[in-house]
Every structure is written in C-alpha cells, then in structure tokens.
Design brief:
By secondary structure, the chain is mainly beta. 14% of the residues lie in helices and 51% in strands. It is built from one helix and twelve strands. Bound molecules: copper (II) ion (CU). The site of copper (II) ion has 6 residues, from loops.
Amino acid sequence: MKRFLLILPLIAALLLLGNQLGTAQGFEAEMTILMGEFFFQVEGQDKGEAVVLETGVPYRITFRNIGNTVHRVKFGRGLVVEEGVPFEYTENLFDNVPLRIEGIGDGGVDFRVITDRLLELDLDPGGEMDIVFTLPLGAQGEWELGCFVIGHYEAGMLAPLMVQ
Ligand SMILES: [Cu+2]
C-alpha cells in the first residue's frame, strides 16, 4: 500500500514531463479562423476580435471560408492604399518563416506545400486550409489580418493580430 502511494507522484511527474516533451516534439496549438462577409472570426471569439499568437509555439491554424464568395487573407502591417483602395501591406509576417500549408484541393486531392514565405491565402466558399508554423522572437508586435478582395477590407474584413 505504501509503495502505491509513492507511485502516484511519480506518475504525475511523468505526465508533466510528457507534456513538456510534447511541446518540443510534434505538439501543435490549434486554432480555427472563420472567414465570411465581411469578417475574420477566431472560433470561440467575437467577429473581428484580435488573433493572439505567441512566438516559439507551433501553431496549426485552420482557415475556413463559411461565406458565399472568395476571400483572401494577408498577414502584415503598414497598409498600402492606392487610389483610395486598400491594396496590401508593406511588411509581411510570414517572410522567412518556414510554413506548411495543408488542405484538400479541387477534386478532393490532399495537398501539402512547404515554403518559407506565405504572402496570401485564397479560399473559395466552403474551402478550408491549414497553415502550420512557429513564429520567431522577432515577429513580436502588432500585425493585422486583412482580406484584399476588392471592397472587403473597406467593408470591415480585418482583425488585429497580436504576436506576444
Ligand atoms: Cu474577403
């Protein structure tokens, strides 16, 4: 009986260790961001509420277009406006950040793309794509998600992106 009591803390310690190893090897923090007319919405938050990410954490973010038209997400800061139309960002969050992009394409074929620069994602209605990445320390700061299909950004399709 005494031996059993000693084993319990040991199991708890092993579980804790397991969690820490999990963080270093293969664990991914999961988040879903919905896109629609005309908003970004982290699942479980209000529409347009900030997306909060941490550096050093492996993320899997699923983008899902629940709207009725194509949406295009860019991740950046320094809005460029040309002839009164929001066009793009001067800085792109995912420059020199290794990324995996996974999804199911036309015809139901799985795809996986590995890149070190993601400029934008386009999603058709009903479309879904995952991006898997870990942000470096230098990414800390205030960024933004914006949809640059004509008229969408102006209609409010943006959300703050805070990297801590
Ligand atoms: Cu849009």
